[in-house]
Amino acid sequence: MSNLAERCRELAASAMKDGIANAALEVLRQYGYEGLTIERVADGAGISKGSVYNYFQNKQELIRFVFDRIVEPAIQATEQIMAQATGALEKLEALLRMMLDHFSQQRSLFDFLFHDPAVRELCMASRRAKNDLATSRFETILQQGIEEGLFRPLETRAAAEMLFGAVIFLIERQLELGERRPTDEMVRHLLDVFLRGIEAKATG
């Protein structure tokens, strides 16, 4: 019974935090970071300020939770891809496609996070940790490809950083220019450059 009660409390707390996060996002859209107050979040969530403080010490902690909540589905999807019994090329394409699709689906939220300097700064530490995780997953795939004889021997960490860096650039470039590029096109170009290079092959 105690385990069941504990589980119920965890679910209730998770639902409450999600509700607070949704209210915080709406306040951010309307007022920006400077206009984000616990009182406005509480009003949006239909709860008291004290209830918000039961879950978040301040608005900075709340912002970091919102960012983690946006990124968490991509992390889970990454681990599912890594667990599949597929070849390195299939994993690489699946990971690239998932990351770019996730960005596309959450475009409006990433757009806000990208353009608000205060929010970007608050999320920097969490973002850095998640970038390191993503880079390590790319490195694992590259190492698998070397073992399969698909990729030539190379410095996998540096290659993984360049590959993931290209993904991040494509995402931030779209936000910067207000563009929307097709995922299939971006994946195709990334694989073409990283698998085949840009050097012309000698003939004859």
By CATH, the superfamily of the largest domain comes out as Tetracycline Repressor, domain 2
Overall mean pLDDT score? Answer: 89
Strand content: under 5%
What structural class do helix, strand and pairing data support? mainly alpha
Named CATH topology of the largest domain: Tetracycline Repressor, domain 2
Range of helix content? over 70%
Total number of distinct structural domains: 2
Name of the CATH architecture of the largest domain: Orthogonal Bundle
Largest sheet: none
Low-confidence stretches are none
Work out the number of β strands.
Answer: 0
Secondary-structure element string = HHHHHHHHH
Q: What's the number of helices?
A: 9
Shape: elongated
Distance between the termini: 77 Å
